Amino acid sequence: MSTSTENTTSTESGTSIWKIVAIVIAILVVVSLIGPIVKAVFWLGLLALAVVGAYSLLKAKR
Question: What is the pLDDT averaged over residues 34-55?
């Protein structure tokens, strides 16, 4: 009886270890993607600001 309980416990702990490893890998992937996404959003915002500024200048001259 005790052998089957030990096997079940080791299988459950093995599964939980793989879940923890998967969560850590997912967190690392998300963190590695945040940098380029923030950089792209910054440049898109800067481009949008330049377009709005140019439009405002052209509208003010008329």
Answer: 95
